[in-house]
Predict the structure.
Amino acid sequence: MEILSVRDVVKVFGDVRAVDGVSFTVRSGTITGLLGRNGAGKTTTIRMITGIFFPDSGVIDWGRDDQRNFRDRIGYLPEERGLYKQMNVVELLLFLAEIKGRRGADVRRSIDRWLERFELGEKRGAKVEELSKGNQQKVQLIGTLLHDPELIILDEPQSGLDPVNMVLVRNLLRDLKNEGRTILLSTHMMGEAEKMADDIVLIHRGKVVLDGTLEQVRASFGKNTLHIDFEGDGAFLGELPTVKHATIVSNSAEIALDEGADPQRILEAAVGRLRIRRFELASPSLEEIFIGKVGADTLQEVA
Amino acid sequence: MNKMLAVLKREYLAGVRKKIFIVMTLLFPLFLGGAFSIPIFMMGRGLGAKNVAVIDGSGQLRTTYATPDEISKAAGGAAGSMHVEYVDAKSGPDVDAASKPYLDRLIDDRNRQKLDAVLVVPASALDSSDAELKFYSRSAADIITQERLVSMTNRGIHAHRLALRGIDEKEATKLLASANVKSVQLSKTGEEKKGGGGNLIAGLLLTGLFMFPSFIYGLEIMRGIIQEKNDRVVEVLVSSMTPRQLLTGKILGTALIGLTQVAAWLLIASIAAAYGGAMLAAGGLNLLQFLRPSMFAYFVVFFILAYLTYVCIYAIAGAACNSDKEAQQLIAPITMIMMLPWFLVGVLITNPDSSLAVGFSMAPVFGPMTMFLRTLVADPPLWHIAVSVAVSLATIALFFRVTAKIFQVGILSYGKRPTIPELWRWLKVA
């Protein structure tokens, strides 16, 4: 069942078509990854969904089975975080719930539960400015979830987090999904999206260049990608014949092959010069798919 | 509505808990009280016991200074006494020479018999109409002593001149008695209004109150809006409510803080006034007979209108700018324009029914303050007041819309301050 469907949405700022006819749907109980590099139009799309911007044209359709105002049905964690620093944690959370139309004893109970879950129980009376940055992010995340939103929208939830908190967020998203919640996750980190998303929507320069379930997307690109782990200098791998494109990071490489190429030739060439630890023919990673889709010219832009 | 109230409540509580609020609430009346009581205290000292010397070249005026003068009688004796050291300089060679040692005592701070003033009466004072009295003092501001001493002396001179023409002293006193003045202000219907002077002073004080809270809390809301944009809290807020709800809550919340403060000030003032009034009542004076209750009713109405108008103007500046500095540059000239009625207060209160005053009182922004001034000193027709209130309400409603629109577009715009044409475009687009 679809919670949200975005149809042919356009937003123009001056001469820039920031979002240029984007359409996709979010299925209930799934994590949808909204992917693309910085500036692709993800945040603008999200701001139209959250009602901050009106689309110049197109429709944001919330269905009709829930009579609540759409603003109350979403929990939104913006990319640029911000909280009232002078308020104490509980007051702030009560306020955030109140502007979503929720108040009373069950909100207080819910706050207690969430604070325990994030190990912030002792900080409940502290001022926000006294918390560490990581804890402030947790508080904002609680504020996003407190009113039991039908759709949780997270814009780059992992930006600025240390590895420990990154895992924490990843686990939280998995838990939320297991609880049956629906999440729209915007990120430029393809690897993270690959670990979590059920559906993906790939945006480039304001347009959707690819969408579908993760499985479909990967299957459609076939098993023509080599994943090689090795010891030695693997720079030459990219120069080999039949290699369409290679991403080489110190001791591992992901190599996209030309149509009909024989992976065996690559193995033969590599064995003589490198110590091979892994050699696997598999589906391409999202990163590879992305690069394959929008062209290598964006590599520089991504970097 | 509930969301707006949530924002209002948050703004209000955050505001009244700030140190600046508590400090301002307590310190301002103290400051104002000081500003008023210090000059009064100084004047009181001016009215206190004075040592003066009169060097009388005519030698005829000794009896003049023997009785207390009328000014100190009028002040109920509270003004303090004046001790006059009379010197008959008629027999001496020359008045100026005779006054020399007394002038020395005026200058010499260490002299135990220090004088506060010296009055020199020339020998010709009784005969010549262009004789000159000379009043010496250390303080140019000691006008009260000068006034008292000179009027005493003149009465003495007049009495003597009359005596020389055969009018006896009792008769002369009757002839010279001056009539008291009681000033009465009439309303349009011909009724007497209660004491004009007291109302005017209290009214001007209240008019001053139009500005301080407006400017303080105007700046506060301007900073609040800018800070919210910079902290990006706003993105969470406007994804939860409309910009209109957010702004209404913010502006009304901040407005309430200012009103709380003014209410606290008025409370402190009325406690002080009740205390002072009780003191005066004990002395036989009823303070309330000088003050019109209608003045306070007008004050509340026009203060709220002025306050909301000013605060909205600051809110617009806050919505249009990205930093405090930019906003202050933008708001400085606007503030000067907003204060125009205050700069023109002299003209407005002396000509409260002139076309300038009437025009100002019904104009947006200037209306509330000017209209309040007019109600103080004159009796403007009710329809003037109604038009003024209506114009102000319309202005405030318009400002709310403009602020909300600029805010909505401006919130998520980065970079430099928008130019006027850009602002205009925002207004049309949003």
